[in-house]
Every structure is written in C-alpha cells, then in structure tokens.
Amino acid sequence: MTEKPHFSLCDLKPGEEAVVTQITLPNERQLHFLELGLLPGETVRMVRRSPWGDPMVVEVLGIQIGLRASDALEIQVERSRPSS
Amino acid sequence: MKRSESTRIPVVAVAGNPNSGKTTLFNLLTGLRQKVGNYPGVTVERKEGLFVQGNRSTQLIDLPGIYSLSPQSEEQRAACEVLYGGAPDEPDLDGVIVIADSTSLEKSLYLTLQVLEAGHRTVLILNMEDELAARGGSIDVRLLSTLLNIPVFSISATRGTGLDAVRKALIEWPLEDHSQERARMIPLPILDQAITRRRESKKIAANVTRRAVRPHPWTDRIDRYVLHPFWGAIIFMAVVVVVFQSIFAWAQPLMNGIDALISQLAAGVRALPLPDPLAPFLADGVIAGVGSVLVFLPQILIVFAFLSVLENTGYLSRAALVMDKLMQRGGLQGKSFLPLISSYACAIPGIMATRTIDSTRDRLATIFVAPFMTCSARLPVYALLISAFVPDRAILPGFLGWRAFTLFGLYAVGFVAALLTSLVLKSSILKSDPMPFIIEIPPYRLPQWKSIGLHLWDRARAFLTQAGTVILLVSVVMWALISFPNHGPNHNIEESFAGRFGHVIEPVIKPLGFDWKIGVGLLSAQVAREVMVSTLATIERVQSKESDPAPLRNALQKSMTPLKAFSLMIFFALAMQCTSTLAVVRRETGSWKIPAVMFVYMNILAYLTSLVIYQGGKLLGWG
User: Which residues are CB-neighbours of B472 under 8 A, at least 6 positions away?
Assistant: First the structure.
C-alpha cells in the first residue's frame, strides 16, 4: 500500500483541499493556530495566494484566514482530493 | 455577610471573537454611558458601560475581542483576569455573555466552552442571524441551548432583531453570592485539552446546524481584486491617498475654525475688567491651552472615522495582509502600516490606532517609531527655514527644485530613522515574538454608522480626558515661563524664565549651531512643534503672518546661517518635542516608562545628529 505523500500548506494551489496532519511548532504557537481552526484532522482549503506564495488565504472552519508562508510551512497536510 | 441586593447592580462581562459584532452590540446596549481606560500597566483598553432600562441597570464590562482564553497575548491575559477574578481592582462578576457570529458558529464555540469552564452564569448570543438566513443557513437554537445547558439567544445587532430577550436577560440578571469566593487560578493552556475542546465545539456545531451557510456572495468577487498582488496594492494606495487628502482637506479648515474660535474667546476674556495677571492667564494660558488640545480633534476624528469604516467593512484585515510583507522588511507587520501612515498627518491618532495590533511587541515598536514620521506640525518650521535659506532654484527645471528636494530629504531622514530604530528594536529588546501572524479575513459587511459614531465619541473623549489634561497643563506652564517675570507692557521675552532658560542651555546647544533664541523656541516646541514659529517671531519682535512671512524670514536670515538652519531642521526631524504625543503614548501603554525612553532616545539622537551635521559642515567650510 502506497503511503500518502505529506506536503505543507505552502504546496497547495488555489482551490485545493487538504487535511492537516501535524504542525511542527512548539505547543505555544500551535495554540494560536488551533484557535482559528488549524489543527491535525481539520480540512483546509487554499483560497488564494500571491504569485510568490506569500502571503496566502486559506479557509478552515468556515472562515478565511491570512497567513505568512513562513508559518504555513510548518503546517503539514495530506491531500484529500485532487485540485478542482 | 451578604450585601443587601439593593445596593449593587449586576456586573456582566461581554466576551466574543473579533468580528462578531460585539462592539456594535455593546454600543447599542450602553450608548453614551461608557467609560474607557486601560487595564493597569498594559496597552489593552478597558471598556465598561451601563445598560439602563427604566430604573434598573446592569454594568457591562467589554472584554477585548479574543479567540480563546489561553493567556498568551495581553488581551487574553486581561480577559482571563476579569473572568477568573485575579485582578484586585476588578469587580466580582455576576456572569458573562458570549457573542458569536452565527455564520461561523464552530469557531466561536471554542471560546464559549472556555468561558463556561470559568464557572460563571453564562448566556450565549448568536449574532448576525440576518446574514445567516440570507446565506441559507439555519441553527437549532433550542438544541444548542440544551447541549450547552445555558440560555442561547439569536439576534441581529445591526437589524435590531431579537434584542428584547437580551435586554430582559440583562436587566433580570441575578446577583451572585461573592462572599465565599476565592480568586481562582487562571488555567495554563494545555495542547491536548485545547484539541479536545476544539473537537467538542466541532461536534456541537455539527449537531445544531440544520443547514450550512453558503459562501458570502460578494466577498470572493471583491477579494479577487482587493487581495490581488498588483491590484490590491493599487487599491490600498488609493485608499491611503484618500485618507490623507481628507485629513489635509478637511482637518485644516476645522483646525483653523477652532483656532479662530479660541482667539475670539481669548480676546473676549482679555477685554474683561479683571486684575492682572488673571486676564492674560485665562486668555493666553488656559484658553489657549484648551485650544491647543482641541485643535487635535479634527485630525483624530477623521483618521478614526476612516479606520472605523475600514475595520467595520472588513477591509482593514485585507490591507494588513497586503502590506505585511513590506512591513516585515522594517521589522514590523501588516497591521502597523495604517498607524504609521496616519502618523504622517499626526502621530497622535496614529499611536492611538496601534491598538489594532494584537502582538504587544509589534505594537510597542510601532508606537516607538511613529513620531519619526514627518508629521504636519513640523511643516511650518520646515517651510519657514527652507524659504529663508534654500534658494528657489531648480535641480531639474520644471520637475524638481532645491526647496522641494530639501523637504523630501527631511521626510526621508524621518523615515530612515524610523526604519533603523524599528529594526534595532525588533532584533533586540522587542525580539522573538511567540505569536505567528494569523489574521481572520471576515466577509465584507456594511459599515454600522451608529456604532462608528459612538466609537468616535469614545476616542475623542478618551483623548480629551487623558491626554488633554496633560497638554493643557504643559501649555499653561509654558505660558507662565514665557510671561514671567513680567516687566510691564514691553515685556521682553529674553527676561522671562523661558528666556533665562534659553541662555542657560545656550552653551549646550551652541555646538549644534543654536543660540539662546533657538533655545527658547525649542522649549516652546515642547508644547507643539509649530509653536516654534510664533515664538521665534515674538523673540525677533516681528509680526509673523502666514500671508506675509517675509519679516520673520528676513530676521532669521540675519541671525542664522544656512548650515545652522539645516542643523535645526534635522533636529526637528528627529527630536521628541511634542508633549501631547508623550501624553498619548502614556495613555496607550499604561505608564510613563515608554514615553520617558522615547524622549531620551529621540532627543539624544537628534542632538548627536545635529552635532555631527553642524560641526562636520563647519569643518568642510560650509559654516
């Protein structure tokens, strides 16, 4: 059985959805992401991003949030379905 | 011993996420009965108000908009202190109302669950029911109430629906027995507990959502341009230009109007048959002092009017996101941009606007560098000195002249000083911010004018009561220093305390190219930078009028050289002169520590730079 590849949030293209697998940051910082719905198990959708990838807007928990690429890099995801 | 119920009213905290309409509801309930201050020692604003119905009332404490109660930011800690009863000056709570955005229930339930853990009587209010319905959503409010075991109301603060139930609940809020209370420990955030809580809110939200909301129709369409890397920046710059233009176009006439009114009033008082020095004290000291406070209001109100509209509609988050990358180059973040840009008009509303920055260190860094932005008060001084000492010649005929170039250079000096200071601060004392930059991008909403109006009233009152008193005091003291000791009708300013001060510091400022007259002028500039011009005019015993600046210019040309003028302009660009700014910084940061540091740092920087410029210039033979 092939292992599903892991990417970070930075690798998603606009329109793509993925599931968060882990956040490689200390707990204190993880809490900040968790407040706005980014935690392992949640589905995230890439809404839009600038051509150089930073910053970006993702949708989670039904709301949109803006992120820097440097932070998004720490959010590991797993593609749940191919880009629409 | 139980206090008699008739001697106190219920105290209820109001909690909620940012963008949940909490402020609108709070304003609706309390109207003008609000009191604004700071939580002791921190930059977080504390707002409380009185909800009155008939002859009964309930005190409401508006907590800062937060996503959770984990005590990581200053806002969250302040909220925790109120909810867990840690702060000695905080009243005991009789309950909490949590305001949630119905269109993003799952997000809001997290805070709701945390508030429930604090153990107070809690009521949940689902706001924006109109938007929920418009977007096709539906929530089983009764089931939610059962699952959470608390009353839940559905309202629309903007449409005014469902509010009667809320008002009834507030007025009938039972008092708690606080006699047995011990202060509880604020729970440390534990990731696993947080994850469990998050999953629980998801489960509850899923259970009560009958129909999910559709995406907001216009938001995506507008964002395609607003958040576009190219168009977004253009749109933002256009917005900034509009704000700026409005400030200069509208504030100036209003400020002139206030000046005229004050002059009339002062003249009227001077004509009264009062014993000397009471008449001049009232006219030139107190009334002029009050005038110097009021004159800031137009700028503050205009800046805040724009900021409120931008925030209300949801545009501000997008602007912060678009500008974030650029601001990072200066060691700051997206939300610092608008406060800094506003500071180009006047640092006071700019510094007051930094409260939108949730990271304390970024907020402090922004406050610290805001006064370096070349504010409009410096312009009269620059204009005077440039017209007196810079030849009206062209560098690029038809495009650029030396005078405009010099002015631009002065703006650049301020900007570079701000940039370097910010970078140094953020890489040392204010370094390693634990908070990642995450900003909620809410759907676009129409501005709530009544709420904005109340917000402006709020800001104005906060400024007047807290900064205004300091400014008035300083103005009166300055008047006294310039007027005493009084030697009769031909009072020579050189013989006043201010004049003596000028002579005393002359040896210190001589290396910068300044004499005692400039010394007196610098002292007066501490009240407001532009006062330097009128003070110099008084010292040179000339009439200085905006329509005819020639006499003052000529007088200065006789007593100064171009190099000295340049040194003075650089000093103005870098020095901390505006006491009003210091008063506002004190109000925003909760103590005199930061303003004191700013005062020392900026003045030393200004002194050393002017010293280098003047002495260096003399060495090079430009003196």
Answer: B286, B289, B290, B292, B293
Q: Sign of the C-alpha dihedral, residues A64, A70, A74, A77?
A: positive
Residue closest to B309 by CA, chosen among B119, B444, B430, B176: B444
- pLDDT grade for B549, boundaries at 50, 70 and 90: low
Q: Which residue of B has its CA nearest to A67?
A: B438
Whole-model pTM over 0.90: no
Nearest beta carbon to residue A36 from set B67, B72, B223: B67
Alpha carbons B35 and B64: distance in angstroms, whole number? 14
Check CB contact of B106 with chain A, cutoff 8 Å: yes
Interface check for A31 against chain B (CB to CB < 8 A): the answer is yes
**Which residue in the set A25, A34, A66 is minimally distant from B194, CB to CB?**
A34
- Selected for mutation to probe chain B from A22, A35, A65, A70 (highest B CB count within 10 Å) is A35
E-state strands within B330-437: 394-396, 400-401
pLDDT band for position B546 (cuts 50, 70, 90): low
For B143-182, letters b (16+ CB in 10 Å) and e give ebbebbebbbbbbbbbeeebbeebeebbbebeebeeeeee
DSSP alpha helix (H) spans, B85-128: 105-117
User: pLDDT tens, A65-84?
Assistant: 999 998 899 999 988 755 54
How many residues are recorded in chain B? Answer: 623
Residue-wise DSSP of B164-202: HHHHHHHHTPPPP--TT--PPPPPPP-HHHHHHHHHHHH
pLDDT score of B68 more than 70: yes
Looking at residue B144, what is its pLDDT?
A: 96
Inform me whether the C-beta atom of residue B188 falls under 8 Å from chain A C-beta atoms: no
Cα Dmax for chain A = 36
> Would an 8 Å CB–CB cutoff place B354 in contact with chain A?
no
Count of C-beta atoms within a 10 Å radius of residue B488 = 6
Is the ipTM higher than 0.85? The answer is yes
